[in-house]
Amino acid sequence: MKPWRDILEELTPRAFRAAALVLERIERHRVSLDSAYQAVLRNVRLGPSEARVAYKLAHRSLLSIGVGKYLLERHGLGALPLRRKAAFYAASAVALAEPDSVSKLESVRGGLLGNRLLNLLKPGSLERVLEGAEELPRAKALSLRYSLPPLLVERLLQVLGEREVQRL
Q: What is the pTM of this model?
């Protein structure tokens, strides 16, 4: 995907940290992406390119946040500090879209992602965990795949059926 390539080419440690801060703020304060982004920009100095990349990364991370949450839960890492979780959500979105991006993540992670978290995102490890997700109850597996709340997916399955939910 070209958009991910653009993000990876321009991703800097400051842009990665800013994206993680945006995700942290969204989770902590239950605010919108734009509100969290503006608050982070008031506190973090970024160049125009870094600011654009941070926003794109935070936005795309939200679209696949279910996978990051599942990976942490599956490995018993749910008690991590929120900032590290947020950084992992951003990193997992990158790793899902561009499996060969782990070396880039190593160079931009700063102190936010330890080796244990980074190892979860290596292609073989990530694929094994995601394959295991297919054994989950159907609503949970679809919730994970599409990053939707499980209760919403359960209700949609009841009303529309699985085929229609996947099409939707």
A: 0.85
